[in-house]
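@channel anyone free to eyeball this complex?
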Amino acid sequence: MGLDKSATKPHEALSAVLAEDMAAVNTLITQRMASKHAPRIPEVTAHLVDAGGKRLRPMLTLAAAKLCGYTGPFHIHLAATVEFIHTATLLHDDVVDESGQRRGRPTANLLWDNKSSVLVGDYLFSRSFQLMVETGSLRVLDILANASATIAEGEVLQLTAAQDLRTDESIYLQVVRGKTAALFSAATQVGGVIAQADEDFVQALYDYGDALGIAFQIVDDLLDYQGDSAVTGKNIGDDFRERKLTLPVIKAVAKADAEERAFWVRTIEKGKQVEGDLDHALSLLHKHDTLSATRQDAIAWADKAKDAIALLPDHDIRKMLADLADYVVARIS
Amino acid sequence: MGLDKSATKPHEALSAVLAEDMAAVNTLITQRMASKHAPRIPEVTAHLVDAGGKRLRPMLTLAAAKLCGYTGPFHIHLAATVEFIHTATLLHDDVVDESGQRRGRPTANLLWDNKSSVLVGDYLFSRSFQLMVETGSLRVLDILANASATIAEGEVLQLTAAQDLRTDESIYLQVVRGKTAALFSAATQVGGVIAQADEDFVQALYDYGDALGIAFQIVDDLLDYQGDSAVTGKNIGDDFRERKLTLPVIKAVAKADAEERAFWVRTIEKGKQVEGDLDHALSLLHKHDTLSATRQDAIAWADKAKDAIALLPDHDIRKMLADLADYVVARIS
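replying in thread with the prediction:
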């Protein structure tokens, strides 16, 4: 990649060039997360929304719209829509995963309760839906409705596939497309659609979001086995302990001999883990070199993302989106 | 009231006259609850959908559309939409209430797990959204998006209001409008909107659904204290044990002397219930005659529902809708 680490990071560069629009998105989010009757709603939402995160998804929508020359007001609504859908899924994910921490802070289900996380998630999902209806674009509604269904389907698939050693790379890709890439690709695609861009451009934006989302999730799964927990805010081996079959392990299972297979059956399928198992799992990932194979996959998806937008008009933002694809995988290089 | 108990029940009469449309709705529901990738989704959904229930809400949409002379295909989509939203909220409610039984069968969260209920609910909600987008009516989308937000808001409000003795009748009404009436009124209203009925008719249908939904929920809350559990499938006093402040208790709290108030504070607010408390609670409801006052409120809402549709065209279905309003409160007469 050869990124100059001292330079501005690409999401910061995007954030700077989109500063005015991002401020409008934040204002709209604050307005729409309010509830006249139920103060619990903005409390829970603010806990997540204020925790920061990079606002990557809404930024992608704004960037796509701007890149396609959009001058209307509705990219703001769509960016807020995308962030609400994302926040709603995070609230529900933390209930499903019984997580206690997110972005280095206690989760909402821990601070309040599962009930609040489920219902506030539902509320935000409904609010996202109201926001997109305001754009008046049936095509945008169609794209976001499909993305929402794909996200939920991916999450359910993950429930059943995660602990099943028959889960191969193609099922993994389906899960990742659902839980992560569907919202990335919808975010970029609706930016193009609202700008009434050419179909080629809309498709390019979709492909970019899809590939970027996949690269993003593969990196996330890789960092779970080799990240620096001070940077990632995650502990090494969380996925292993939670018996989540992700790409590094799927690749190792595919190459496992009988004894190794028995190890994966016991630890992932049966969940009977004992002291030292994580170290042994790591040694198997190293033995079969699956961490580096996983890294290669992530880089290939980032390259695919860059290729996709090559046909878009030459523009500062196109350059930043390409840099963003590099940056996503630079964390593991 | 004076209903002839041997006669066909109004929802059965409606079901008979709408039989062809209801069959189409059921077919569409079965098609759309499928998932290519995640078989868990139709399993969980079928458990609820097949359990029956009266399909009251989709029937209201079909009835409203037919009453307004609609001849197109989209009332089927809207009826399925409404049933999916209803099913999604049931799945999430059972997680929130930690319920083990629904319609006399174990709940999905008990048979599978909370995770499946949360995520399959999200999937159905997304599917409902896809279905309504297919109608191409932005007004319908607006109505259903608003209803969804009102439902979630009502549920969150209930979380915080249910155990708070300051909850008065107006807050109770807000909760009931959210958790129950919002979907009834949206169901009837969109039937009129899709038929492009006059604004007066659309408003009348909305008012009917709103009042019917409120009557329905008040009856439900009343039956919790005086129903026959063999008929209702609920145990007497479930709401009391779950510390849910519903109308009969709200009315009793308003009339409580200091000693009675201390009883409600201990049992509802603090949840420190002991043997014999339910009997004492019932004796207080009888002392202040709040069960009969609650019944009067339900009947008044049913009358309001009938009044609302009086201006609609004379039609068999209008008569059945009026009978339905009577029937809803006949359970407590």
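from a first look: Chain B has one domain: 10-330.
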